[in-house]
Specification:
12 helices, alpha/beta, Rossmann fold
Length: 256
């Protein structure tokens, strides 16, 4: 039977290459009501400065976490800290890091969750360990599949050959040294950076103490001026460097 004028039969071509994935994501979103687990969340950590005085410190924490691969952000808005925390909770950030002058001096952050739970103050390295613990463990099939994988440590007795984790640990100081010269220059740079890391790990924000960087900080800054400390090896030195590198030349001149 012929169709009436204006009622031509439409032709629809339907493709659902990712249809099942999209439906699963929709069901999961509805089921979780936006409260994604940490390892799956697009909003894992947000840093909230209490005041402008702690802004640079919070910026360095954000950069540190972001470089480690976490989904991190920083709240640069103006306003009371209670409002910032509340906005972060409504936005379903898994962890909310609050920091002011007190936290800046001790290289810590006040850790809260979107469910108003407070973990209290934690050092930055302790915080990273806590976040890493949130990652899911590899499946049993993973270990079973790679059970017979080649292991250089079992076949080579040379001290220069090691397994993956050991090799990575050995390569880290070299990567941090960056443009430093080979040989003794590499060793001297790493040794100096180790000393800086050890001093900052004691809880001081500046090497010279007090409220502002001093001569010790100026000397250390010259050492790492052309290289950025690797946060995986030198977390405290990286946080310190990320902060002092933002000081203007006029402020840096006052360190001496």
């Amino acid at each position: 039977m012929p169709l009436k004028p204006g009622f031509k039969r439409p032709v629809i071509i339907h493709r659902a290459i990712l249809g099942s994935v999209e439906r699963f994501t929709a069901v999961l979103t509805e089921h979780l009501a936006g409260k994604w687990p940490f390892w799956l969340s697009p909003r894992q950590v947000i840093v909230c400065p209490i005041s402008e005085k702690a802004a640079d410190y919070c910026e360095s924490i954000y950069l540190y976490l972001h470089k480690l691969g976490f989904q991190a952000e920083i709240d640069r808005s103006q306003g009371a800290i209670n409002k910032k925390v509340r906005n972060a909770q409504i936005a379903q950030w898994n962890y909310i890091l609050v920091a002011g002058e007190d936290e800046m001096k001790s290289c810590t952050v006040d850790v809260r969750t979107r469910d108003t739970k407070r973990h209290g103050k934690k050092r930055i390295d302790e915080l990273v360990k806590m976040l890493d613990a949130e990652k899911p463990m590899p499946a049993k099939q993973y270990d079973a599949f790679y059970a017979n994988a080649f292991d250089p440590a079992k076949h080579f007795k040379d001290d220069n050959v090691s397994s993956g984790a050991q090799a990575q640990a050995q390569q880290q100081p070299v990567a941090v040294a960056g443009a430093a010269a080979n040989g003794s220059s590499d060793r001297n740079f790493s040794k100096k950076l180790d000393e800086i890391e050890q001093e900052l790990a004691c809880g001081a924000q500046w090497l010279s103490g007090g409220n502002m960087p001093g001569a010790d900080d100026a000397e250390a800054f010259k050492v790492v001026a052309n290289q950025r400390p690797d946060p995986r090896v030198y977390p405290h030195a990286f946080s310190w460097y990320a902060t002092v590198s933002k000081f203007s030349p006029e402020k840096q001149a006052a360190w001496k």
